[in-house]
């Protein structure tokens, strides 16, 4: 099979997977939603230009797409089972090296190309179109449209290839990954001020930042393709029964069998510790770094408070880990209710939420900001509870697939972003204002109780 | 005769598709009933409705005296179910999965119950293997074990012998016959006619969601007919109708 054939087959497959899960119409609407949000968001830029200059807004967009690239890369690229994790054990094109004479390296290279094109068309292009549509109304030179597209695509691809690189290292050796992360952290520390190449390219288009951006994309991507390693699920893993002892220890919480199962799923899945690094600590670390850059442009803001808001949003994605390994259909033939499984997932989430709290404590200690810690903690807890409740309300036990449904995604954004922006702006005036975010906790409780009832009638489809 | 399953004009529609179309049937204690039909004929939906996993669009059903819409959890507490497509959770071992199910069902003597099924279905050596790494046949044994772990009086099985080797198929068939002879009741769905002909007391033939025939296997074979031509005539006749 030639690479172009493989590429087009993968593109077709990716589209069909998404459109089958969400319905072709609703999935086709997803880029339209991005256009609409980018258009509306761009229209508001002049309103906030005093607090958030255009250059800072551009930086925030770059960070957003860097993270989006990292998320696309980490979605499934978790060490040895990256293809298996992404596709389950279905007979998809990613597995054709089992039955056809095509190397895993060629498949993975094509897979990366497919992700590049597919997700640039799905995310970056619609965002740029929305921005472009708004430029006549906000007095921005249309010349920035192409520049925005190019720099955002570069930012996205840096995120994608960085995660592929790190996960390839992880697939070979956890120690190698850890050593590389330490070296990268030390290099960043010694470099002092960091300038993100796509952002430099946006501010001052030239060959140097463009070449640097391409190097940051091509070198990690090339290394991950050259050293790709894939284990197929015919490796037999054996474990002693640790479920019972774990369930016993968790029994005071109730639903102990589900929580113990969630814990074992998380620990034994190939992502294990890597999942925490890629899906949580890496984006959180990047956000912290970017906030350090942001405060140079916008003096007077409290980075800990904004960090707490974003940490709250990202920590709600822990719920996605909890629901990644099973679906209710695995329990539907047992005497179990959907609400019971949701309750158990929420308890598991509660336990894992100690991780973002620890991160916030660490961040507060690093900045010496003991005074804003309490309001920041209140913000973290409130935002985390509220975004989680919105997620559960809208997606039940299926956040990993349902958030790609355009209608669901739109409702998620509408339910969360105004609230988050309000907290951020209120905390800029006085960090103590952020304590008002605690009002989100009863709202979260209300949404969760509605979710338990609403998802109770969920049914298995198919006959 | 004690009724274990009573369905009255049970119907299920998914959008414009009628998966099950007004099926009425009853199954009594100690009976081994086989619902036969081609792929996509509505067998799985029928089992899901009878076990409260799917709400009927119309009609009603009682299982062990309980209304499946009003009391689905209690129904699933009492009966054992072996679904066709579902597989046990990936990252628990076979033994852990049975313990997981036993805890959901609030059972005692969990180790003894598990040992019994690992021995009976001959997969002791797989008890510490992650479910995701089990062969399809072993997963089917595991699903079989979970359904009988609480010693139910009624078991509903969707494609009972799928993925099992001939030796294990024989064992399972003998087990099911022994189970019903001791008062247990089995409702199984299959598209493998030989199974039905060999072990079922009564059969129902379903096509396009409609029950085309229900009767004793003995009556059919006693009249010198075999199930396969009878089934094919019935289904082809329905297609032509």
What does this structure look like?
The complex is a heterodimer of chains A (463) and B (241). By secondary structure, chain A is an all-alpha fold. Chain A has two domains: 236 residues, no CATH class; 164 residues, no CATH class. Chain A contains 20 helices and no strands. In chain A, α1 crosses α5, α2 packs parallel to α19 and α13 packs parallel to α17. Chain A is globular. The two termini of chain A are 36 Å apart. The mean pLDDT of chain B is 92. Chain B has 241 residues and is an alpha/beta fold. Chain B has two domains: 150 residues, Rossmann fold, CATH 3.40.50; 63 residues, no CATH class. Chain B is built from nine helices and ten strands. In chain B, the strands form two sheets. Chain B has a six-stranded mixed beta sheet with strand order 6-7-8-3-9-10, with helices on both faces. Chain B starts with a strand and ends with a helix. The longest helix of chain B is centred in the last third of the chain and has 16 residues. The chains are: A mainly alpha (463), B alpha/beta (241). At the A-B interface, α10 and α11 of A face β2, α1, α2 and α3 of B.
């Amino acid at each position: 099979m030639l690479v172009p054939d493989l590429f087009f087959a993968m593109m077709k497959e990716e589209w069909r997977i998404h459109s089958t899960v969400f319905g072709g119409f609703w999935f086709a609407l997803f880029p339209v939603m991005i256009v609409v949000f980018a258009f509306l968001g761009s229209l508001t830029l002049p309103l906030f230009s005093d607090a958030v200059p255009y250059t800072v807004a551009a930086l925030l967009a770059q960070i957003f797409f860097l993270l989006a690239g990292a998320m696309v890369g980490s979605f499934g690229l978790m060490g040895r089972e990256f293809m298996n994790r992404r596709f389950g054990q279905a007979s998809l094109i990613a597995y054709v090296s089992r039955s056809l004479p095509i190397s895993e390296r060629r498949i993975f290279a094509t897979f990366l190309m497919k992700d590049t094109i597919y997700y640039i068309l799905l995310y970056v292009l619609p965002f740029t179109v929305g921005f472009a549509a708004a430029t006549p109304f906000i007095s921005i030179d249309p010349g920035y449209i192409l520049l925005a597209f190019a720099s955002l695509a570069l930012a996205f691809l840096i995120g994608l290839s960085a995660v592929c690189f790190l996960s390839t290292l992880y697939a070979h050796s956890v120690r190698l990954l850890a050593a590389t992360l330490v070296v990268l952290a030390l290099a960043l520390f010694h470099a002092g001020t960091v300038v993100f190449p796509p952002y430099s390219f946006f501010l001052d288009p030239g060959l140097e930042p463009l070449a640097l951006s391409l190097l940051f994309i091509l070198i990690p991507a090339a290394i991950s393709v050259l050293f790709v390693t894939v284990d197929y699920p015919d490796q037999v893993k054996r474990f002693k029964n640790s479920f019972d002892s774990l369930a016993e220890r968790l029994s005071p919480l109730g639903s102990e069998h589900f929580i113990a199962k969630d814990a074992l799923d998380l620990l034994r899945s190939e992502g294990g510790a890597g999942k925490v690094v890629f899906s949580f600590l890496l984006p959180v670390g990047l956000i912290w770094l970017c906030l350090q850059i942001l405060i140079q442009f916008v003096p007077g803001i409290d980075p800990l408070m904004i960090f707490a808001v974003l940490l709250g949003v990202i920590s709600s994605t822990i719920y996605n880990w909890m629901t990644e390994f099973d679906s209710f259909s695995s329990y539907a033939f047992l005497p179990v209710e959907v609400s019971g499984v949701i309750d158990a997932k929420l308890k598991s989430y509660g336990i894992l939420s100690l991780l973002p709290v620890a991160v916030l404590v660490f961040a507060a200690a690093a900045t010496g900001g003991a005074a804003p810690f309490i309001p920041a903690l209140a913000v973290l807890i409130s935002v985390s509870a509220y975004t989680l409740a919105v997620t559960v309300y809208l997606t039940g036990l299926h956040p990993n697939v349902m958030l790609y449904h355009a209608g669901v995604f739109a409702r998620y954004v509408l339910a969360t972003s105004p609230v988050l922006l309000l907290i951020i702006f209120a905390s800029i005036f006085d960090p103590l204002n952020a304590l008002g975010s605690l009002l989100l906790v009863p709202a979260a409780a209300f949404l969760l109780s509605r979710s338990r009832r609403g998802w109770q009638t969920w049914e298995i489809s198919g006959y | 005769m004690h009724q274990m399953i009573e369905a009255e004009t049970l119907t299920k529609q998914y959008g414009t598709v009628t998966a099950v179309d007004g099926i009425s049937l009853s199954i009594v204690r100690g009976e081994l009933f086989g619902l036969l039909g081609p792929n996509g004929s509505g067998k799985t939906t029928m089992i899901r409705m009878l076990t409260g996993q799917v709400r009927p669009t119309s009609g009603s059903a009682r299982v062990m005296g309980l209304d499946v819409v009003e009391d689905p959890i209690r129904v699933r507490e009492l009966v054992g179910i072996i679904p066709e497509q579902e597989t046990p959770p990936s990252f628990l071992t076979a033994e852990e999965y049975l313990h997981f199910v036993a805890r959901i069902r609030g059972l005692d003597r969990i180790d003894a119950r598990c040992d019994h099924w690992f021995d009976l279905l001959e997969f002791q050596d797989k008890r510490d293997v992650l479910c995701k790494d089990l062969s399809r046949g072993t997963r089917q044994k595991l699903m079989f074990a979970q359904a009988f772990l609480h010693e139910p009086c009624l078991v509903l099985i969707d494609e009972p012998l799928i993925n099992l080797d001939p030796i294990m198929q024989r064992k399972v068939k003998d087990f099911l016959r022994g189970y019903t002879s001791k008062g247990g009741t089995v409702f199984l769905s299959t598209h493998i006619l030989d199974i039905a002909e060999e072990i079922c007391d009564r059969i129902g033939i379903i096509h396009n969601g409609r029950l085309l025939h229900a009767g004793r296997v003995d009556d059919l074979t006693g009249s010198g007919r075999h199930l396969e031509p009878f089934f094919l005539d019935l289904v082809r006749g329905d297609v032509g109708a």
